[in-house]
């Protein structure tokens, strides 16, 4: 099983969206994603829950979690999301950074734009890494 970690500071927006899209699109027998943060928030931002609901993904029960060595164990890749100096480092794991704005406090249209950019980046990542999409998965 190939594991990809999406991380941002509070694990309440960008990383939650990216992991949710990855898990929707990837064949779950072959790959999955985990989202985590260096300083997890109490909940996923309500505006993120709203824009993800618009594309049929329910994050209302998602709980931000801390990126720990146990969470990162066995991961193939860590994708950080514009967290600058606070971005985590996991020894031995390939890393990429997607410089995306934090959706916290942004207007609905801005968060939709961030969501759509994340969707495109997840699709490109999957293609670049040869991750087979679920045949019935529909990208929004």
Automatic annotation (TrEMBL):
Under the heading Gene3D superfamilies, the entry gives: 3.40.50.2300
What is one GO biological process annotated to this record? response to arsenic-containing substance
Domain annotation Phosphotyrosine protein phosphatase I: ranges: 2-128
Please give the SMART domains that the UniProt record associates with this protein: LMWPc
One Pfam family, short name please?
LMWPc
Superkingdom, according to UniProt? Answer: Bacteria
InterPro entries with a match to the protein in the record: Ptyr_pPase, Ptyr_pPase_sf
Q: Which UniProt keywords apply?
A: Arsenical resistance
Question: What is the name of this protein?
Answer: Protein-tyrosine-phosphatase
Q: Which organism is it from?
A: Edaphobacter modestus
């Amino acid at each position: 099983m190939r594991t990809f970690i999406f991380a941002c500071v509070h694990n309440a927006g960008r990383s939650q969206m990216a992991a949710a899209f990855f898990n929707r699109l990837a064949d779950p027998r072959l790959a999955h994603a985990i989202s985590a943060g260096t300083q997890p928030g109490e909940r996923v931002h309500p505006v993120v829950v709203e824009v993800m609901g618009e594309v049929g993904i329910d994050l209302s029960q998602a709980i931000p979690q801390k990126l720990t060595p146990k969470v990162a164990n066995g991961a193939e890749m860590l994708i950080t999301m514009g967290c600058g100096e606070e971005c985590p480092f996991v020894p031995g794991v390939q890393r990429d950074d997607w410089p995306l704005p934090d959706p916290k406090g942004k207007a609905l249209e801005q968060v939709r734009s961030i969501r759509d950019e994340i969707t495109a980046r997840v699709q490109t990542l999957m293609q670049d890494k040869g991750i087979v999409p679920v045949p019935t998965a529909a990208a929004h």
